[in-house]
Specification:
Elements lengths: L2 H10 L6 H10 L2 H15 L4 E5 L1 E4 L28 H13 L4 E4 L9 H14 L4 E3 L3 H11 L3 H11 L1 E3 L10 H7 L6 H13 L4 E7 L5 H18 L2 E8 L14 H14 L5 E2 L8 H7 L6 E4 L6 H4 L8 H10 L3 E5 L15
Parallel strand pairs: 1-9, 1-10, 2-3, 3-4, 4-5, 6-7, 7-8
Helix pairs in contact: 1-3, 2-10, 3-11, 4-5, 5-7, 6-7, 9-10, 12-14
The chain binds iron/sulfur cluster.
The site of iron/sulfur cluster has 12 residues, from loops.
Length: 361
């Protein structure tokens, strides 16, 4: 048995990989072998035939941002003619539209806009909670939280406690990109650093607000830096157990200042597979279909992913970077069925929602 075969068997059994072992597998195992081991692990962890998805929407309430990441085509600097901030009524109208379509999760997310006081968020979240009590407010990146803390001269914990009291229930894992200092200095020099990202997550999870974790891969990072990213997330999860899921998605370069090339389908599937094998303490790996498209998202279900993420009824950040993928609930359910699984609507916390499917069984 070769060393790679031994490591694949070890990982498929759920035994922890060291950083060196993870990197060796990621670099040297064939896609077929890596995917098979990840699928075996996923099948052991989730033995039923259900594959879940959440009915959700992303509302990009402002594009004004003082962070200026070079991989971002969405933001506009302060004072720019194309900058916008939605009124509460505009956001609420979008929530109402999404709720009519069964959305149970709202992701309010945008730029780090220094003009917005904490009261903007408090009043907005209260209004959403009063009008749409069945909708989970799963919102704001670590950068936005830190931006509010800086503007208001408050601690991150005080900001999170205030927003939680207003109705914020959980945080998306946005803004992680690659949690390695060298990479962040090149692609997001003005953003909070890797330690700060982890610290905000630690504080939120400690307050009982679960979060997800993401990875934006394919900009300038090395293979080893991808594994380091997984490693720091695994370490924090050992400590807090507060991450609900891991969502790797690839960088869309077409309209960004950073430019570069888009990851290939093989690269995407390899990242899904190594994520399943390396993140032995994460229950769920999401097939992030928005950037690679639904067909690759479907294949991810056979390479370690157990969840199709969300419907993302409305989204601008990735779309403005040059992605044109859209999928209806029926499309998502058909993709799940044809991969050999049964679609299942879930909520933010991966609990089954008794909500009718869009397509007949
Ligand atoms: S990725 Fe987020 S923080 Fe960075 S420039 Fe875009 S909106 Fe701002």
């Amino acid at each position: 048995m070769s060393e790679v075969e031994r490591l694949l068997a070890q990982a498929a059994r759920g035994e922890r990989l060291s950083r060196e072992q993870g990197l060796a597998l990621y670099r040297e195992a064939s896609l077929h072998d890596l995917g098979a081991a990840a699928h075996a692990r996923r099948s052991e962890m989730h033995p039923g035939r259900d594959v879940s998805y959440v009915i959700d929407t992303t509302i990009n309430y402002t594009n004004i941002c003082n962070v200026h990441c070079t991989f971002c085509a969405f933001f506009r600097p302060e004072g720019h003619a194309e900058g916008y901030t939605m009124t509460h009524d505009e956001v609420l109208a979008r929530v109402a539209w999404a709720a009519e379509q069964g959305a149970t999760q709202i992701m309010v997310q945008g730029g780090v806009n220094p003009d917005l006081a904490i009261g903007y968020y408090v009043e907005l979240f209260r209004a959403i909670g009063e009008r749409f009590p069945d909708v989970d407010i799963h919102s704001l990146s670590t950068s936005e939280i830190c931006g509010i803390a800086k503007r208001e001269n408050m601690s991150v914990e005080a900001v999170l406690r205030t927003l939680r009291a207003a109705g914020l229930r959980s945080l998306p894992g946005a803004g992680a990109e690659i949690l390695v200092e060298r990479v962040r200095k090149r692609i997001s020099a003005r953003k909070i650093d890797d330690d700060r990202w982890l610290e905000v997550m630690r504080i939120a999870q400690g307050l009982g607000m679960p979060t997800t974790a993401t990875m934006m891969f394919g900009s300038i990072e090395t293979d080893a830096e991808r594994i380091t990213h997984l490693d720091v997330l695994r370490e924090l999860q050992d400590e807090t157990h507060g991450f609900l899921a891991f969502i790797p998605w690839y960088y869309v370069p077409h309209k960004t200042p950073l430019r570069g090339r888009e990851a290939t389908g093989i690269e995407y599937l390899r990242v899904i597979a190594i994520s399943r094998l390396y993140l032995d303490n994460f229950a769920h790996i999401q097939a992030s279909w928005l950037t690679p498209g639904l067909k690759l998202g479907q294949l991810a279900l056979l390479h370690g992913a157990d969840d199709m993420g969300g419907t993302i009824l409305e989204e601008r950040v990735v779309t403005l970077a040059g992605s044109s993928n859209h999928a209806t609930r029926a499309d998502i359910e058909r993709a799940i069925r044809q991969a050999g699984y049964i679609p299942q609507v879930r909520d933010t916390y991966f609990q089954r929602r008794d909500y009718p499917l869009a397509t007949p069984a």
